[in-house]
Amino acid sequence: MSRIAKRKKNRLSQPRERRRRWLFLATGAALAVAFGMVALSWLSSRAATSPAASLVSLTPSAPTQGTEQGYPPAPVVIENYSDFQCRFCGLFARETLPLLEKEFIATGKVRMVFRQFPILGDESLWAAEAAESAAEQGKFWEYHSLLYSRFVGQQRGAFVPERLKSYARELRLNENQFNLSLDSGKTRGKIQDDLSQGRARGVAGTPTFFVNGTKMNGARSIEDFRRVIQALLKEK
Amino acid sequence: MRKRLLAVLALSGLGIGISGYLSLVDLTTVPLYCPGGSAGCTEVLSSMYARIGGVPIAALGLTMYLGLFGMALVCLRSADPAFSSLAGIFALSLVGVIFSGYLTFFVEAVILRQFCNWCLVSAGTVTAIASLSFSLVRSLTGQS
Q: Which pTM does this prediction carry?
């Protein structure tokens, strides 16, 4: 091969080599970023299900009685018809309820009443029964928050009786009493009462709220609640 | 090359539409409509796997598609697109393919046992973008 031809070949192959190096670098970086994201997603989901994370907002900041929390003479009463398998009920419980607790419930302005409205399948009913069984031991709100933090999808096994019993164990409830209550179905009557009362009041989906009797549909933001509550407080 | 870049641009536009809508659903009160029934979408999007450290995955997808759209546009406007831009499109879409694969074949198929149809369309879209961009970079490295 002549010297000129060799030089020409080198000129052509150099950018090619550089491009291949570029491609290797880009692919390597892409693989590193992608696997980093997979790892982050995995760790983030583990953190969401770890007992430490779920216990953060489990303890209510105001006195509780059964499925109610707040001071009894509170001028505003919010009734919440919810299902433990309902996505937007979970959104409300995780994001809006803690803010309401801090601003209105702990300060004696609002009393929150949870009403069972299990309409999304067997696991909704079992979860409602388990929450009522926890209420018998004064731990409804802790159990309620734990259930919403463990939701992975409708009818996906997160709220089957065995799991529900393990959540009770995690919260250090009296296991025998809880299991007996859950297995006997003794709380079903109270749940049916909540359901029939809700239907009679026009509840068609969850969550549905009644703020001093006025109906509000859907998981509203803290601003929506604040506006309604402040208007009611001014009237008092 | 131009036709393949135009296809990348169109597919990125589709991805922006899907991930933008899912981000809106996640961050606002826009109702969720899902092709072929909303049960799977609701379950997948409300699961703990729908966010990484509080950031919705749909928003991460939107960022990726905007990046792909921008790079495809830059390549289209240039008579001789820079190899680094094409390699960038391939690398970014490869991240999307791997992460979509994890979400589809592990999170949706194994853990949640529910499929979100919007997510499946997005996974197909990013896979098509990765294939097209791979064919573009291969043609420039003389391997085609």
A: 0.55
